[in-house]
Structures are given as C-alpha cells and as structure tokens.
Amino acid sequence: MEVITVANNKGGVGKTMQCYQLSCHLASKGHKVLVIDLDSQANLSSTFNLQIHRTLIPEWLIGDVSIEDVMVPSEGKGDIHKNITVIPSSRHMANLSKLLILSEAEIRKEAGRKERLMKRRLEQAEGMFDYVVIDTPPMLGDELIMALVASRKIFIPTQAQDYSIDGLEELMDTFEIIKETENPQLEFSIIPSMVNTRRKIERQRLEELAQSFNITPPIRNLVQMQESISMRKPICKMGKKSKGRADYSELWESLNL
Ligand SMILES: Nc1ncnc2c1ncn2[C@@H]1O[C@H](COP(=O)(O)OP(=O)(O)OP(=O)(O)O)[C@@H](O)[C@H]1O
Ligand SMILES: [Mg+2]
Predict the structure, then answer these.
(1) CATH of residue 158
(2) Does the C-beta of 76 come closer than 6 Å to ligand 1?
(3) Could you list the residue range(s) of the whole structural domain that residue 203 is in?
(4) CA 62 to CA 104: how far, in whole Å?
(5) Number of structural domains, the chain?
C-alpha cells in the first residue's frame, strides 16, 4: 500500500484537483484507492459527491472509532467509483487540534507522538488498498505533518508565479525535518500546476523552478480542468484529444503511476 500526500501550504494551487485526478487515474487502472480528505473545506469530498454532516476523522485519529466508521464508498457511476473509498471531511475537522490537546496523555502512551497517529491508523487499512491519496489543507498544521509521517511520497503542486515559488521554501524545510526525524523514505515531486504557457513570465518562472528542483511535466491552466470538477468527470475519461488528459497522462507516466 503506497501512501501519497498532496500538499502545499499555499492555497488554491491545485491540490484538490491533483488528488481527484490521481485517485481516478489509479482507480481506472484497476487499483483499489483510499482517498482521505483532511481539509475542513471538504472540496474533495464534494467532488466525490460526499457531503457529510460531521466527519469523525479527529476521533478516528485519536483512536476512539475504527477505520470502518469513517470510510464511505465513492458515489458515482462506472468502474472507477467501485475502486474508490473515501474518508470524507467536513468543517468539524477543525476539532482536531482541540482533541489532540485533550488526549495528549493517551496519545503519548499509545503512539509516542501525535505526528505518528495517521501512520498508526493506516495500519488498519493495510491489505485493503493499493494506494492511499491524501488531500491536505493550505497550512503547515497537524494534518499535514501527520500525513507526511505516514506517506511514501509528497506531491507538491505549485504555480509558476513568484509568491508560489517563494512559499515552497517553508514546505521544503518541513519536508526535510520529517525526512530526518520520522520518515527517511519520504520522497517529493514538484508538479507545476495551472501553468499558462502562453505567458512569457510563467515560462521564465518554470525555467527558474527547474534550475532549483527536479520538476515534473507541467499541468496547464485549462477551462476543461474546471469542467472536470464541476461535471464530476475525471480528465482520464475525457476524449482522446483533450489537452488536460494529455498533460495528466504525461505527468503520471513521468511518475511511474
Ligand atoms: N489545471 C487547471 N486549470 C484550470 N483551473 C484549475 C486547474 N487546476 C485547478 N483549477 C481550479 O483552480 C481552483 C483551485 O484549485 P484547487 O481547489 O484544486 O486548489 P487547492 O490547492 O486544493 O485549494 P485550497 O488550498 O483552497 O485547498 C479550483 O477552482 C480549480 O477548479
Ligand atoms: Mg483543496
């Protein structure tokens, strides 16, 4: 079971888009996928047609409920959905920090540190899924740290714009700390997202980014990508001439997925 977290503390860079397209791509190849939405905005959950009143993710993480109590089959037609199970979010996700403080003593006894909770809980899913895809909120908080400790890979969507590139430094520092302390196997990929390749400035930023990091092929800014979300139709199911489908095919190939 390979765990992949999609993260960037900057908002609106295409994390949820990436999670949706990645989960659907893996499911379309016949893999069993568990999707975990750790963002209280619950955008990924709604894209899978799962609007729930109250998520029990905080209770699951601290060990009060089992994984079966938080998992829901994905809603939708077709083979893809049969292969996807979701742990949906809701705004109650915001209770996590409070619960972590209240349960500090039990957590220390059972998992050592709160950062290890997600890893510990995912042991219950071992053998049930081939992949776990985790969407995270736009901040360097408990959710993100726990997800990184539990993951093999972190995918970092980033825009080819000044502020996005500056913001990467903070995330990369967090990545390095987790790698050195809790998870030496953690690997990262920087994925240029929502890129407008017609703009010279963005092409330049992309080149600069490539000088500092090993970046993947970019995903362009395309109206079709927004349609994919509003129609709940993954890009891998769009027509063969679709530019978005072509971008994502190239991306998944470069990542051996
Ligand atoms: N390649 C793309 N082309 C065009 N629009 C896109 C693309 N990727 C994402 N978008 C749109 O940009 C907006 C932000 O994307 P998304 O919600 O995936 O970002 P996010 O990083 O998850 O945001 P947040 O930090 O709020 O969770 C959405 O409206 C989405 O449909
Ligand atoms: Mg999001």
Answers:
(1) 3.40.50.300
(2) no
(3) 2-254
(4) 9
(5) 1
